[in-house]
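note to self — DONT lose this again. spent like an hour looking for the file last time. sequence + predicted structure for the chain T wanted, 124 res
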Amino acid sequence: QVQLDESGGGLVHSGESTRLSCAASGHNFYVLAWWRQAPGKERELVAAAAYKESLRYYADSVKGRFTIARDKGKNTVGLQMNGLKPEETAVYYCAAGTTWVTGGAWDPKDFDLWGQGTLVTVSS
């Protein structure tokens, strides 16, 4: 069975750090990524990692604070989030796809499989 299993998240205070993990089973996807959706907002791509180690994407809002790390041997992807802000409270989703999108024009439709989501709440 092909699926993504997320872990991590929860409640953190502003400025603190937390880490999310996602394990992909049943298929080795070329792209693993983290999206987030805040209440009343559209889903946005936070970070993406291709199987090719030189391909990484970060949303401008998280550059320098978040790090995506892919363990090819274990088929997992992690997201280390530092310096979290209250406005980053959202449900974070792991997603898997087969194609790397150039130019940063990512769309949820570029991903074939989604995790169930994990809530990250950042208190002020």
